[in-house]
Amino acid sequence: MSFIGWFLESAAFAQIQREKFTKYLGGHTVEEAMTKAYGLVPADTTISEFIQNEILTRHRRSFLVEDYGKYIGLLTVHDIKNVSQNDWDKTKVTDVMKPLDQVKTVDVNFPLVDALKAMDKEGVNQMPVLEENKIVGMLSRESIISFFSSLNLKEQ
Length: 156
What we know:
Elements: H1 2-25, H2 30-33, E1 39-42, H3 47-58, E2 62-67, E3 70-76, H4 77-80, H5 93-96, E4 98-99, E5 106-107, H6 112-122, E6 126-131, E7 134-140, H7 141-155
């Protein structure tokens, strides 16, 4: 009985926190929480170069892959997880990236709450942000939490 009571109390608390989070984010747009600083990696980069030059130095979790000035895909740390370290020198980022036409994107004016729901539904931690069909930033769970924290601080 105690376990069931604890479980129900935990579930109720989580629901209250979700509703509070949703309430605070209501009325805000993606533009307010996105970051305009996002990582770029050239298409001809090997996984080894990517690890050494980007992951270990910049500590970002997602990068847009660029080929001759055009964005062609999204690369996350998760994408390289299945590549054997022995193959890092001969595997290009384009071999493991997600092509941009398969990446969930969001418009700069989209409601922030709905963007977060879309991230949950798609199972992604970041989405490129578009304005007039051009990438202008990156929305991530981290940027949403930072934005939420700044709202919380202002109201206290």
